[in-house]
Amino acid sequence: MNQFARTELLVGAEGIEKLKKARVAVFGIGGVGGYVVEALARSGVGTLDLIDNDRVSLTNLNRQIIATHSTIGEYKVDVAKRRVLDIHPMAVVNTYKTFFLPETASEFDFGAYDYVVDAIDTVTGKIQLVMEADRTHTPVISCMGAGNKMDPAAFAVADIYQTSVCPLAKVMRRELKNRGIQKLKVVYSREVPVTKTQPPGSNAFVPSAAGLIMAGEVVKDLLADRREN
């Protein structure tokens, strides 16, 4: 019995093969990125590159799929790799204990990826990810602010220049426009933040919703051969 048999009913054998051959880089393995990795592994994506220098902490347990009491203190990428291989033993999982910033961008070959997922928090890192993906014509999807939100149904997929409400999206629109980036697929929330705490408050159902939406977009685009040449 093929573990992807139920997915194959939706995408066909050719679709399963496309996902098997795909290589996706997920930057940020937290509340959003962890669910992206989970869904991509369960969808049969053949190679995953996981980038995050953080360790699982007690405060991650309320929202991060890789966080349990038994994984506290471990590197998130190590926990995620173990989980992926338990789900999809034939997958190739590359891990990088790296905090992605412009200074560390040269460590990654963006041209080797079929898709890039931005699930990191820092604006400078997010901008650099988009710039690197644009330079290599690699499809990228970016998550905007998921903190201080309570409504998982408020998320939408849009181009960055069609976003509203989200403070992070506003900053990204300005910075990307200044750098000549003409488009960027994002997942963003139309919900006004319920509070303005720092660090932002979060819960079990908003970041996970964003992550699963992002994973769905990645899978759809991979199946559609979205990559530009």
Number of strands: 7
- Could you tell me the strand content as a percent range? 5-15%
- Spatially, the strands of the biggest sheet line up as 3-2-1-4-5-7-6
Low-confidence stretches: none
Q: Indicate the CATH class.
A: Alpha Beta
Radius of gyration: 17 Å
Query: So what's the oligomer here?
Result: single chain
Summarize the amount of helix as a percent range: 25-40%
Number of H/I helices: 6
End-to-end distance: 37 Å
H/E series: HEHEHEEHEEHEH
Morphology call: globular
Notes on the protein architecture:
By secondary structure, the chain is α/β, with parallel strands linked by helices. The protein has a single domain, classed as Rossmann fold, CATH 3.40.50.720. 36% of the residues lie in helices and 14% in strands. It has a 7-stranded mixed beta sheet with strand order 3-2-1-4-5-7-6, with helices on both faces. Helix 2 packs parallel to helix 3 and helix 2 packs across helix 6 (206-223). The model has no long low-confidence stretch (mean pLDDT 96).
